[in-house]
Amino acid sequence: MPKTSFFNKKNRGKKKILFVTGTRADFGKLKGLIECVKNEKQFEYGIFATGMHLLKRYDSTIHEIRKAGFTNIYPHINQDDVVGAQMDYVLANTIQGLGLYVREFSPDLVVVHGDRIEALAGAMVGALNNILVAHVEGGEISGTVDELLRHAITKLSHVHFAGNQQAKKRLVQLGEKPSNIFVIGSPNIDIMLSGRLPSLSKVKQRYRIPFKKYAIFAYHPVTTELSLLKKNIAIVIDALKQCGLNIVVFFPNNDTGSELIVDAISQLEGLDRFKMVTSMRFEYYLTLLKKSSGIIGNSSAGICEAPVYGVPTINIGTRQNKRFNHDSIVNLPEDQPKILEALQNFPQKKSPSLHFGKGNSSKLFGQILKKESFWKRSCQKTFRDI
Question: Does residue 3 surpass a pLDDT of 80?
Answer without folding.
Answer: no
